[in-house]
Amino acid sequence: xxxxxxxxxxxxxxxxxxxxxxxxxxxxxxxxxxxxxxxxxxxxxxxxxxxxxxxxxxxxxxxxxxxxxxxxxxxxxxxxxxxxxxxxxxxxxxxxxxxxx
Length: 101
What we know:
Layout: H1 2-27, H2 42-100
Helix pairs in contact: 1-2
């Protein structure tokens, strides 16, 4: 069952990494002046629209990454639980067989 526990640990590590990436995705957004939002006229309108789309896209990707991280963590938990139940079952069978001998 060690291999299942090792797999669960790797999934937990992956979930933590993805969660960190989700936080970083929005933490490093370029400031709105980088898009020219302060410029008058059509260029400023385009800059504001681009900045808005940038924020929406990075927020969406961050949300998706957070969901993926939660799914990996849930899978790790399920695998760990299954491994523990295998050990319990093996112990139960060992005790029963020991009594029958």
